[in-house]
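Long-time lurker. I teach an intro course on protein structure, and each term I like to show students one example going from raw sequence to a predicted 3D structure in token notation. This year I'd like something fresh instead of my usual example. Would anyone be willing to generate the tokens for the chain below so I can use it in lecture? Attribution to the forum is fine with me.
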Amino acid sequence: MNEIDGYKVSYEKKEKILYSRMDESMISSLKAISRKTGISVSEIIREGVRRLLKDIDSTGSLNLKIY
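-- Reply from a regular --
Happy to contribute to a lecture. Here you go:
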């Protein structure tokens, strides 16, 4: 049997789902990134949240710039 190292199993049962509201510009930007990279919109969002949570864990604070 071959093993592949990764951060998650190949199939995850989706026990909990969280919905989020976004404006049209955010949605279209995410879809454009998805088309260019081949990565699903949900995976792009999850990775963004993972990075934000990791930053919070390492610094102990949340720093968002609003333009």
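Some talking points for your students: Helices lie at 24-37, 41-59. DSSP finds two helices and no strands in the chain.
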